[in-house]
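hey all, quick one before standup. I had two proteins in the batch that finished overnight and I want to keep them in one place so we stop losing track of which output belongs to which input. First protein below, input sequence then structure tokens straight from the run.
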Amino acid sequence: MSGYRQDTFSERLKTANEARKKALEKFKAQPKADDPEVAARRAEREAIHAAREVREAERRAAKEAEAARKAAEAKAEEEARWAREAAEKEAEEARQKAARDARYAARKAAKAQKKK
């Protein structure tokens, strides 16, 4: 590293001052808030933001509609299942009653034959 040369204090100060000047010039060169280009970019960003909000609202509404449709389908399926279970229960009760009535009739017939 024989070719390396360390800067002196005055050189470092000069470099720092030049860097500050460049930063200040860059800052001053920026367009002002009332510049037409800045206003146009701001208006464009606001339009994009508004369009994004509209799309998000549409998506949210579609999701809510889908959730409501699924809930209605689930409720209809649940009601159909309850009706089916009630019908099956009534059919089972009717079958049991018929079997009970058949046993009663068989006992009654057996008693009537014993009396003869």
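OK second protein, same deal, sequence then tokens:
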Amino acid sequence: MEKIDITTRFKRDGSLIPIDFSLEDQTVQILNVGRQWDNEKGKHILVMDFRENTYHLFFQLSDLSWYLIRDIKPGPGSI
């Protein structure tokens, strides 16, 4: 799990919409937001970038920080 900087937006209903995040020295622009779920430790969000790479993001309640849990699936444009 890697701590990341992220840009998010709050909708009127309080839901979080990730816009982009920093990964090493690059910014990953988010194209689609997929499944989201909460547990006792925080909020999990699956997102996809423009190259169809899928990422599992996590907002941890204990320190109010964002983390990249792992890259789930590399897209066809990342080879």
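Flagging for whoever picks this up: Residues 57 and 68 are 5 Å apart (CA to CA). The mean pLDDT is 88.
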